Amino acid sequence: MEPVDDGSAELVVYGAGWCPDVRRSRALLEAEGVPHRYVDVEADEAATELVRRLQGGARRIPTIVWPDGSHLVEPSDEELRARLG
């Protein structure tokens, strides 16, 4: 999938408060000291549309978008740590 530029220069986590995978990924980012912005897809229609575009119509969360437009969908802790370097 082609990278997408959401107009920000920061790591963005798209998710929902009820999702344990979103909470886990955000906790890992916080523990690693990685600044990020959280966007609730249930409260933001534009965010839902962006997530669906990235996933070809699906809305799996968390969807984590890097400043370069690359993204991970529902990453395991190992996948997220590997991407963080």
TrEMBL record:
Residues 12-69 form the Glutaredoxin domain. SUPFAM superfamilies: Thioredoxin-like (SSF52833). This is Glutaredoxin. It comes from Kineococcus rhizosphaerae. The lineage of its organism: Bacteria, Bacillati, Actinomycetota, Actinomycetes, Kineosporiales.
